Amino acid sequence: MSAAAKKSAPAAVRLSLGAAGSSVLSALALMFIWKSDAIDTNTAYVLAILPISLMVFALVKGLSLTKENTRATHRYLLRMALTMAFYLITLMIAEHFIEDRGVTGWLAALLAFLPGLSFAGVIWVFGGLIIEEKDEFYRLLYVRQGLIATAISFTLAAIWGFLETYKIVDPVVAFWWPTIWCLGLGVGAIFNKVKYGTYGEIR
User: Which structural domain, as residue segments, surrounds residue 157?
Assistant: First the structure.
């Protein structure tokens, strides 16, 4: 493999991860705008092409990565893309049938359960990366990222919980805590860069 091809591999990985992350952020932004009544349902469905396209791109890009990337990386990217795709699909279905169609009962509970389960799947997918990574240094970086993310989310959840208990702040929807955990992975990557000189990029 040429030197140029070797250099392009990490860039391809970052591009794939960026597309996957952007698909989720754009989907959440679209959901917020839709629920604020700034756009109607038909417009929201049309705009949903953007996050779906980004997710498809991330999946295709992940499948086409070169052999320079580890098998753990391949599996991580594909699992993450599939998990996020399932999350976006189930979230849109839940919003449509529960919020717009007024579905209730056990079916509503199931529809609400699925996006929560898929979002939690992100943590399991990251755990799989740690277990399957063969390079001990990168495994250390991933474990460190996960611990920092856990410390941030648990600390904030504990503090906010007591503030809620004593009526100092308003309650927060629980799905924000795993969301903060995911953002904490980025903070952990920065800590890795400061201490070890590398973010611990998926390679």
Answer: 135-203
